Amino acid sequence: MNRRLAALFTATLFSIGALSAKACGCFTPPDPSVPVVQAGERLLFSVANGQVTAHIQIQYAGSASEFGWLLPLPSEPQLELGTDELFNQLTAQTQPKYRLQRNFGSCGQRNLFSPTAAFGKGTDESLPPSPLVIEGSIGPYNYAVLKADSKQPMLDWLEQNHYFVPVGTDDVVGPYVHTGAFFLALKLKPSAKVGDLQPVVVHYASDLPMIPIVLSSVAAQKNMGIQVWVLGQGRAIPRNYYHTVLNDAAIDWLNSGANYNDVIIRATGEAPGHHTFVTEYAGTSKVMQKLLNPEGRFGSASELAAITDPAKYVAYLLQHGFGQPAPSQPGPFVQPAQLTSQELTILQRYIPFPTALTKDVTAPQYYSQLDYWLGSYRKQNPGIFAGYDFTLDSAALTVELEERVVNPTVAAGVLFDQYPYLTRLYTTLSPEDMTRDPVFSFNRDLPEVSNLHQATLDYQCGYLNRDSSTAPAVLTTEQGFVIHLPGGVSNAKVPPVSASRRIEMLREAGPPEVVTDNSRSIVMQLGAGGCSLGQSSVRGFLWALGLIALIALRRRG
């Protein structure tokens, strides 16, 4: 097992080094009011009737031969293919956004696994007992389900059958090995490339979802982001982790929350054991309804399979909801839709992308304008296309697109019709803090949490006679903190305040139990930095100081 650690492994995979764009397929246009957060793990859980369904996004950078993935499970699982678009849309619809409303003219302070495979048992009694329950293949993966009654037989089987096992696995796998436990192992098929990677959907019997984060410590990076969505009948909670309400005075409102992830990291460090989650969104699942599976999306498989002209085939894909909108760019020209990297990887096996063109055009550009490249450009430059066969097996291509794109996407979209409530939670963890596996449950008593946040910036009297960047201003956060900017916004800095406003314990019923409330100390921190709360908050604070003084006088008397 003395191999280079290049696999990612636990409930989802994260990259060693930079993420490979080939394994993502993201074309979501950027929103300037959305903080940029690159989570190492992204999962969506749904829970009903003792069954957990986990959609797991696999992110990996490295060679295909060194890709390996292990997932400990409490029961025998079933496996299906998932879709990256689910996570792209979830991210876009529930991402925290920090927006600033600017008011001019104020002269005062504002108030304030596979359906066709059967999972059976049975071994040849003449041979030593094997931990293997079943092995098979799905999409780009070969997989195996193994009994985890004993550690060494399982690790030996993985080694003998060429499943990549990262160095250090032996040290952390112990807590997941016990009678009745299982492991799911994945590897890429010999013919598959890293660009073929796509999410998986794992169904298993369990009362509550859990992330085996202890196992992640083998290949984790410092301050690794962990993003979790949970579907159910009410708001999801971290059952055995703390819960943090961020102090929004620590957010860089002037730059759309650009320091958001840093605030999360600091808030995690302020929680006991560095074990806490922040709720980024909690509310209706309608924000995701019909985004993945609108009526008529993907057209007709029979119509598509009958198209044998490559350019017309790709045009049909783009006209019927395959791919995603291209990134928005300044200027009057609207960029055409682009196919995802997963779809492009599939297309390249059926419709060649000539090597000579790669220096002049990207794969998304080539396939989105295939009529030009195989039309007039090919006529003018026949040598570039010499030796390539453009005969299209449209029937086989359609079958693969149905299996790997259409069916997973439609199935994911149906989830948001079945479950009324969606929760998004986020935290960051370093390897040394990965000592407890987070478990998630529900509390229907808790209020909704919006992902949209707004502060106000009021320019004070005299701004007309000055540059707006240096005019005095007052920033009022959503939580009611007021930050005075006498020198304007040009050189303003985020005040050095606590990242956590409150640290709580959330139970499965009732209101939060406050462990730490930093509200008063934040007031003091802001005051020390030339900042304060709004008028009503200031009056309350002064009233409290007056009460303390009165008590002191009475004692002296």
Ordered list of secondary-structure elements with their pairings:
Elements: E1 41-48, E2 51-56, E3 69-73, E4 78-81, H1 84-94, E5 97-103, E6 132-138, E7 141-147, H2 151-160, H3 169-172, E8 182-188, E9 200-205, H4 213-216, E10 224-232, E11 235-238, E12 242-246, H5 260-270, E13 276-284, H6 301-305, H7 310-319, H8 341-350, H9 363-368, H10 370-373, H11 376-380, H12 394-418, E14 421-429, E15 440-443, E16 452-459, E17 473-476, E18 481-485, E19 500-505, E20 513-517, H13 519-528, E21 532-533, H14 535-556
Parallel strand pairs: 1-10, 5-16, 12-13
Antiparallel strand pairs: 1-2, 2-9, 3-8, 4-9, 6-7, 7-8, 10-14, 11-15, 12-19, 13-14, 16-17, 17-18, 18-21, 19-20
Helix pairs in contact: 8-12
Straight-line distance between termini: 78 Å
Count of individual domains:
3
The beta-strand count equals 21
Measured on Cα atoms, how large is the radius of gyration?
27 Å
The rough form would be described as globular
What structural class do helix, strand and pairing data support?
alpha+beta
Poorly predicted regions are: 1-30, 106-127, 328-334, 528-557
Major sheet strand order? 4-9-2-1-10-14-13-12-19-20
Taking the sheet with the most strands, its summary is:
10 strands, mixed
Strand % is 15-25%
Helix content: 10-25%
Q: Give the overall pLDDT as a whole number.
A: 82
Number of helices: 14
